[in-house]
Design goal:
The protein has a single domain, classed as 3-Layer(aba) Sandwich (Rossmann fold). Helix content is 37%, strand content 23%. It contains eight helices and nine strands. The chain has a seven-stranded mixed sheet with strand order 5-4-3-6-7-9-8, sandwiched between helices. The protein has a two-stranded antiparallel sheet with strand order 1-2. The termini are far apart.
């Protein structure tokens, strides 16, 4: 590794067993101010600052007492919640193993597993104030397919949020360029009082990710009374 360029930018020499793409990725990591800041401040990933910036804009963590973190690995978002709301109950889930975080319950399982929503609700022990989702499907390199797979996770997260959120709660989810599709936005607007899209500064400019922020959960609609109920 060598240091060069203006402003002390670090450059990485291409190693024998390292591809040019890997070299570029490593160089970007070494020169990313968010990566350096995360290391200095004890966060597991630069993604922590995406939530910090979204919270600064939308006040997501104000007054929350129960939070669910979908796609918790490596744990940066839950670290932010833990730091800003130390007494909040936090439950996270991910297919990948996640090192323990003090005060956070972590389930290693697939969120799309039929038993996952019930497990999450049980561990949380009450209605959630906030459901966070930084989940994204593994990409296959085909933009349309990648978009559909990620949006399926967003839709599943929305359905789950509608089951566990208390009135006034919020749902935040990663989407790809173009944001949530028309049908999902319509569903979110039916469930929440405000629905917005945002790209926090910590999200790399060349990244296709955006976030949908749905706030003011209206509560589940009561079923229509049957004839026997009305009699």
């Amino acid at each position: 590794m060598s240091r060069g360029g203006s402003g002390g930018r670090q450059r990485v020499k291409t190693a024998r067993n390292r591809s040019a793409a890997s070299t570029r990725w490593l160089e970007r990591q070494l020169n990313d101010p968010y990566v350096r800041r995360a290391k200095a401040e004890g966060y597991r990933s630069r993604a922590a600052y995406k939530l910090i910036e979204l919270d600064e804009r939308f006040h997501l963590l104000k007054g929350v007492s129960r939070v669910i973190d979908l796609g918790i690995a490596p744990g940066g978002w839950s670290q932010v919640v833990r730091k800003k709301v130390p007494k909040a109950a936090i439950v996270g889930i991910d297919l990948l193993p996640v090192d323990p975080i003090d005060g956070v319950t972590i389930l290693q399982m697939d969120f799309m597993d039929d038993t996952a929503p019930e497990r999450l609700a049980e561990e949380l022990g009450g209605q959630a104030d906030l459901v966070l989702s930084d989940m994204a499907a593994n990409t296959v390199g085909h933009p349309q397919t990648d978009h559909l797979r990620t949006m399926a996770l967003v839709e599943a997260g929305c359905a789950f949020a509608a089951d566990v959120l208390k009135p006034g709660g919020a749902y935040v989810a990663k989407v790809l360029a173009g944001g949530a599709d028309h049908d999902l936005v319509a569903e979110l607007k039916r469930l929440f009082t405000t629905v917005k899209h945002a790209k926090p500064p910590a999200s790399r400019k060349d990244s296709s990710e955006w976030y949908v922020i749905a706030q003011g959960f209206k509560g589940r609609a009561k079923p229509e009374p049957t004839n026997s109920d009305a009699s």
